[in-house]
Amino acid sequence: MIVGTDKARAEPGALFLRADLELIDENRRLIDRLSAELDTIDVLVLGARFQRSRRRETADGLESNFALSYLSRFLLSHGLAGLLGRAADPVVLNFGGTVATSFAGDYDEAEAAQIGRLRATGKPVETAVGEILPFLDSGTPGHPVAVSEGVAIPLDPQASFPADARRLYDYTREVLAR
Hints:
The structure is a single chain. Helix content is about 45%, strand content about 15%. By secondary structure, the chain is α/β, with parallel strands linked by helices. Strand 7 and strand 8 form a beta hairpin. The longest helix has 16 residues, at about 65-80.
Protein backbone atom coordinates (compact mmCIF):
# COMPACT_ATOMS: atom_id res chain seq x y z
CA MET A 1 0.00 0.00 0.00
CA ILE A 2 1.39 3.37 -1.03
CA VAL A 3 0.23 6.68 0.43
CA GLY A 4 0.98 9.91 -1.37
CA THR A 5 -0.26 12.68 -3.61
CA ASP A 6 0.80 11.28 -7.00
CA LYS A 7 -0.54 7.88 -8.03
CA ALA A 8 1.84 7.81 -11.00
CA ARG A 9 4.74 7.38 -8.56
CA ALA A 10 3.24 4.27 -6.92
CA GLU A 11 4.63 0.84 -7.73
CA PRO A 12 2.55 -1.02 -10.33
CA GLY A 13 0.01 -3.24 -8.65
CA ALA A 14 0.23 -1.46 -5.28
CA LEU A 15 -2.91 -0.14 -3.62
CA PHE A 16 -2.65 3.66 -3.71
CA LEU A 17 -4.26 5.91 -1.13
CA ARG A 18 -4.21 9.63 -1.80
CA ALA A 19 -3.32 11.81 1.17
CA ASP A 20 -1.50 15.09 1.66
CA LEU A 21 0.58 14.19 4.70
CA GLU A 22 1.45 17.85 5.33
CA LEU A 23 -2.08 18.25 6.71
CA ILE A 24 -3.03 17.07 10.20
CA ASP A 25 -6.58 16.12 9.19
CA GLU A 26 -5.30 14.09 6.21
CA ASN A 27 -3.06 12.07 8.56
CA ARG A 28 -5.96 11.52 10.93
CA ARG A 29 -8.26 10.52 8.05
CA LEU A 30 -5.64 8.03 6.87
CA ILE A 31 -5.22 6.59 10.36
CA ASP A 32 -9.00 6.22 10.72
CA ARG A 33 -9.32 4.55 7.32
CA LEU A 34 -6.47 2.12 7.90
CA SER A 35 -7.75 1.33 11.39
CA ALA A 36 -11.19 0.55 9.96
CA GLU A 37 -9.96 -1.53 7.03
CA LEU A 38 -6.93 -3.42 8.35
CA ASP A 39 -6.41 -5.95 11.10
CA THR A 40 -2.67 -5.42 11.37
CA ILE A 41 0.30 -3.56 9.92
CA ASP A 42 3.53 -5.53 9.69
CA VAL A 43 5.77 -2.79 8.33
CA LEU A 44 5.22 0.97 8.39
CA VAL A 45 7.66 2.86 6.18
CA LEU A 46 7.85 6.58 6.89
CA GLY A 47 9.67 8.22 4.03
CA ALA A 48 7.57 11.06 2.60
CA ARG A 49 9.63 14.08 1.55
CA PHE A 50 9.06 17.26 -0.37
CA GLN A 51 11.68 19.91 0.27
CA ARG A 52 11.24 23.59 -0.46
CA SER A 53 13.82 26.35 -0.74
CA ARG A 54 11.38 28.93 0.53
CA ARG A 55 9.35 28.78 3.70
CA ARG A 56 5.75 27.75 3.09
CA GLU A 57 2.97 27.27 5.58
CA THR A 58 0.38 24.53 5.35
CA ALA A 59 -3.34 25.16 5.65
CA ASP A 60 -2.84 24.26 9.34
CA GLY A 61 -0.45 27.22 9.71
CA LEU A 62 2.64 25.02 10.15
CA GLU A 63 5.92 25.17 8.27
CA SER A 64 5.53 22.57 5.52
CA ASN A 65 8.82 20.68 6.00
CA PHE A 66 8.10 20.32 9.73
CA ALA A 67 4.56 19.15 9.01
CA LEU A 68 5.60 16.50 6.48
CA SER A 69 8.98 15.32 7.77
CA TYR A 70 8.23 15.31 11.49
CA LEU A 71 4.59 15.79 12.40
CA SER A 72 3.12 13.30 9.93
CA ARG A 73 5.60 10.66 11.10
CA PHE A 74 4.63 11.36 14.71
CA LEU A 75 0.92 11.10 13.90
CA LEU A 76 1.20 7.94 11.81
CA SER A 77 3.54 6.05 14.13
CA HIS A 78 1.45 6.85 17.21
CA GLY A 79 -1.91 6.59 15.45
CA LEU A 80 -1.14 3.20 13.93
CA ALA A 81 0.53 1.74 17.03
CA GLY A 82 -2.49 -0.49 17.71
CA LEU A 83 -2.33 -2.09 14.25
CA LEU A 84 1.44 -2.48 14.54
CA GLY A 85 1.00 -4.06 17.97
CA ARG A 86 -1.05 -6.86 16.41
CA ALA A 87 1.81 -7.89 14.11
CA ALA A 88 4.05 -10.79 15.12
CA ASP A 89 7.20 -8.73 14.57
CA PRO A 90 6.23 -5.15 13.67
CA VAL A 91 8.69 -2.79 12.02
CA VAL A 92 8.62 0.99 11.77
CA LEU A 93 11.15 2.20 9.24
CA ASN A 94 11.78 5.94 9.36
CA PHE A 95 13.92 6.97 6.39
CA GLY A 96 16.44 9.76 6.52
CA GLY A 97 19.50 10.49 4.45
CA THR A 98 20.44 10.88 0.84
CA VAL A 99 19.34 8.20 -1.56
CA ALA A 100 18.94 8.79 -5.29
CA THR A 101 15.16 9.15 -5.35
CA SER A 102 13.06 11.76 -7.10
CA PHE A 103 14.17 14.54 -4.71
CA ALA A 104 10.67 15.95 -5.04
CA GLY A 105 10.55 19.58 -4.12
CA ASP A 106 10.38 23.22 -5.07
CA TYR A 107 13.96 24.48 -5.26
CA ASP A 108 15.57 27.80 -6.05
CA GLU A 109 18.30 27.82 -8.72
CA ALA A 110 21.22 27.19 -6.33
CA GLU A 111 19.52 24.30 -4.57
CA ALA A 112 18.34 22.84 -7.88
CA ALA A 113 22.00 22.63 -8.94
CA GLN A 114 22.86 20.85 -5.66
CA ILE A 115 19.96 18.46 -6.16
CA GLY A 116 21.23 17.68 -9.66
CA ARG A 117 24.58 16.68 -8.14
CA LEU A 118 22.84 14.56 -5.49
CA ARG A 119 20.81 12.76 -8.15
CA ALA A 120 24.06 11.87 -9.88
CA THR A 121 25.98 10.83 -6.76
CA GLY A 122 23.27 9.61 -4.39
CA LYS A 123 23.15 5.99 -3.37
CA PRO A 124 20.84 3.85 -5.54
CA VAL A 125 17.63 2.86 -3.76
CA GLU A 126 18.45 -0.84 -4.24
CA THR A 127 21.78 -0.36 -2.42
CA ALA A 128 20.18 1.49 0.48
CA VAL A 129 17.46 -1.16 0.82
CA GLY A 130 20.12 -3.89 0.75
CA GLU A 131 21.88 -2.17 3.66
CA ILE A 132 18.69 -1.98 5.70
CA LEU A 133 17.15 -5.43 5.08
CA PRO A 134 19.49 -7.39 7.37
CA PHE A 135 18.40 -5.23 10.29
CA LEU A 136 14.70 -5.80 9.61
CA ASP A 137 15.24 -9.52 10.19
CA SER A 138 17.78 -9.08 12.97
CA GLY A 139 15.99 -11.32 15.46
CA THR A 140 15.79 -8.56 18.04
CA PRO A 141 12.13 -7.49 17.96
CA GLY A 142 11.17 -4.48 20.00
CA HIS A 143 14.61 -2.95 19.93
CA PRO A 144 15.21 0.27 18.01
CA VAL A 145 18.10 0.20 15.60
CA ALA A 146 19.74 3.11 13.80
CA VAL A 147 21.54 2.18 10.61
CA SER A 148 23.98 4.31 8.64
CA GLU A 149 25.73 3.04 5.52
CA GLY A 150 24.79 -0.55 6.40
CA VAL A 151 26.25 -0.39 9.91
CA ALA A 152 24.21 -0.40 13.13
CA ILE A 153 24.81 2.67 15.25
CA PRO A 154 24.66 1.98 19.00
CA LEU A 155 21.76 3.70 20.70
CA ASP A 156 23.11 4.64 24.10
CA PRO A 157 20.36 5.63 26.55
CA GLN A 158 22.99 7.46 28.59
CA ALA A 159 23.79 9.68 25.60
CA SER A 160 20.15 10.67 25.05
CA PHE A 161 18.44 13.66 26.55
CA PRO A 162 15.13 12.55 28.09
CA ALA A 163 14.17 16.08 29.15
CA ASP A 164 14.59 17.32 25.56
CA ALA A 165 12.58 14.38 24.23
CA ARG A 166 9.80 15.07 26.74
CA ARG A 167 9.77 18.77 25.79
CA LEU A 168 9.48 17.89 22.08
CA TYR A 169 6.71 15.37 22.79
CA ASP A 170 4.79 17.92 24.90
CA TYR A 171 5.23 20.60 22.25
CA THR A 172 4.02 18.21 19.55
CA ARG A 173 0.91 17.35 21.57
CA GLU A 174 0.31 21.09 22.08
CA VAL A 175 0.54 21.76 18.32
CA LEU A 176 -1.90 18.94 17.62
CA ALA A 177 -4.37 20.22 20.22
CA ARG A 178 -4.75 23.60 18.49
